[in-house]
């Protein structure tokens, strides 16, 4: 089954120590958000902070199609900026997954 051009979301959760929260937020808003939203297939980004429990942060990237996330899979790598690498060293744990919109049969 192919999902090549179906709407999707990239979901990322991040856990950081409280003393690293401000830098995470600065990086997201100053560098990461503009970079991601300039990529083909990325159409939106919403971020959330948990009201309780962990992980503390959730980012949901709206994608035109799931393969848009493949070009930016994971952190680090050859395209990572020095600031990104520094910020990611403070992450206690993180997870990343791509979700494809369901195509339900007509009712």
The major sheet is characterized as:
4 strands, antiparallel
- Tell me the series of helices and strands, N- to C-terminal: EHEEHE
User: What is the general shape?
Assistant: globular
Poorly predicted regions: none
Proportion of beta-strand residues:
25-35%
| Spatial sequence of strands, sheet with the most strands | 2-3-1-4
The CATH architecture assignment turns out to be 2-Layer Sandwich
Beta-strand segment tally: 4
Q: Could you tell me the radius of gyration in angstroms?
A: 15 Å
Count up the helices. 2
At the first level of CATH, what is the class? Answer: Alpha Beta
Descriptive labels:
2 helices; Alpha-Beta Plaits; 107 residues; globular; alpha+beta; single chain; 22% helix
Explain this structure.
With 107 residues, this protein is an alpha+beta fold. It has one domain: Alpha-Beta Plaits (2-Layer Sandwich), CATH 3.30.70. The chain is 22% helix and 32% strand. The protein has two helices and four strands. It has a four-stranded antiparallel sheet with strand order 2-3-1-4, with helices on one face. The radius of gyration is 15 Å and the shape is globular. The two termini are 21 Å apart.
């Amino acid at each position: 089954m192919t999902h090549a051009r179906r709407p999707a979301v990239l979901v990322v959760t991040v856990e950081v120590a409280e003393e690293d929260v401000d830098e995470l937020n600065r990086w997201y808003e100053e560098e990461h958000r503009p970079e991601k939203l300039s990529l083909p297939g990325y159409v939106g980004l919403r971020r959330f902070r948990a009201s309780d429990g962990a992980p503390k942060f959730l980012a949901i990237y709206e994608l035109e199609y799931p393969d848009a996330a493949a070009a930016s899979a994971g952190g680090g790598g050859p395209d990572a900026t020095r600031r990104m690498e520094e910020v990611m060293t403070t992450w206690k744990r993180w997870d990343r997954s791509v979700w494809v919109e369901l195509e339900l049969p007509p009712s």
